Each structure stands twice: as C-alpha cells, then as structure tokens.
Amino acid sequence: MATGKVASLKTTILAPLKRHTASVIFLHGSGDTADGVLEWIRSLVQDDFQFPHIKVIFPTAPTRPYTPSGGALSSVWYDRTRISPNVPELLKTTDPVCEQLGAIIQNEVDGGIDKQRIVLGGFSMGGGMAMHLAYRFHQDVAGVFALSSFLNDNSVVYNALKSKPSSPPLFACQGLRDQLVLSDWTNETIKQLSDLNVECDCHTFPKLYHELSAPELYMLKDWINKRLPEES
C-alpha cells in the first residue's frame, strides 16, 4: 500500500463498559454509515452488543461513485462493476481504503491494544472489505467476521493466503433467502478459504434475507468473546 499521510475516516464508537483491553472494527454494508449500522444493531439487540472490555469501532466508508448504482455517489468501501463474484476486483479502489482502515488499527495499537486483541469484520460489502484488510495486510489480528459476504472468484485474498503459514479464523453467517448475496457465493468463499487453512465457523439461516438478525448478532457476540476474552 501507499505510504504517507492517510485521510481519516469518520467513526462512531460503542465504548466498553469497563477497562478497555480489546477492540472490534465493524464495517457497514454498501450505502450505509457507521451510525446507520449501529442503529440497526440496536434495533435488533438493544444494548446487548456492548462488551465490558471491548471497544466497538464503526467507521463510515468514503463517498465515491458506485458503478452498480449507475455511478451515483455512495458510501462504499470499494467500487465494482457489478455485484457478482465472477468479475475482476477493482483494487485501485480497495487498497487506499485498506490503508485508511489500517490507520484505525494502528491507532488502537498506539493506544495499548495488542493486534492479537483486535477483531475485524462487517456486513455485506463490509465483510468483504474486512477479509481483504485482514488476510492481505493484517494477518496477526485475532479474527475476522463476514455477515452475508463473499469474495470474488479469483480474489487476490486467496493468492495472499497461499504464502501465509497461519491466518486469523473466520466467523461467517449467511441467509438462505438472500437474493443480493447468494448463498452459493458465500459457500464458495468459505470453501476456498478453508482450502487455504483458514479456520471457518459458518452458520446459515434458512429464513434470513440480505439483513442482520438478532440470532446471528448474539452468535457473533459469543464468538467475539471467545476470541477476545475478558482479562482478569
């Protein structure tokens, strides 16, 4: 990635209830914002996504022209020619934002949080971005989660993982009624990651569309607590 001054992203913080010893970075889906996804989460689980010891950081993606929306401006982590796994990745849009998100990770490290006490993840495009961020540039984080997400068929993520002796585990959820991100796309992503020795904890929800749900958020919270246990 490029070096030099990195433009900062707007973030919304869900503060820990007690001493801060770990962090989660949660990336929203395309067209959403930090405040939007946090409001969505709270509408499903109220305050139950707060942790005693974990700061949850919700960044907002930069605004840019988004090709699947006819080039209209949208808050998206990267551009793509269409929402499908069988198109080329537009890395010139992905990698600069990886650098901006990397600055958020570094800020946590500078504040005393070990990278192995940081989890990265997100919903839809946010989950795809988290997989790029972790598996290409920050392989030493504690884990990755991807909710209703996928990687492109020939993703550079897979090539990056071929040279890594170990990688963060993945927690993935997918609704079987999702008509935007098809379950077959998620299944192929999980298969390819598993073949590259990524430990994948995957869950499907038969009645779930392209959306978050309370059951998956509670499962995610349990998984985060296992990856980032409270320190005595």
Please explain how this structure is put together.
The structure is a single chain. By secondary structure, the chain is an alpha/beta fold. The chain has a single domain, classed as Alpha/Beta hydrolase fold, catalytic domain (Rossmann fold, 3-Layer(aba) Sandwich). It has 6 helices and 9 strands, in the order ββαβββαβαβαβαβα. A 7-stranded mixed sheet has the order 1-3-2-6-7-8-9, sandwiched between helices. The chain has a two-stranded antiparallel ribbon with strand order 4-5. Helix 5 (183-195) links the parallel strand 8 (170-175) and strand 9. Helix 2 (91-110) packs across helix 3. It is globular and about 45 Å long. The N and C termini lie far apart (37 Å). The model has no long low-confidence stretch (mean pLDDT 95).
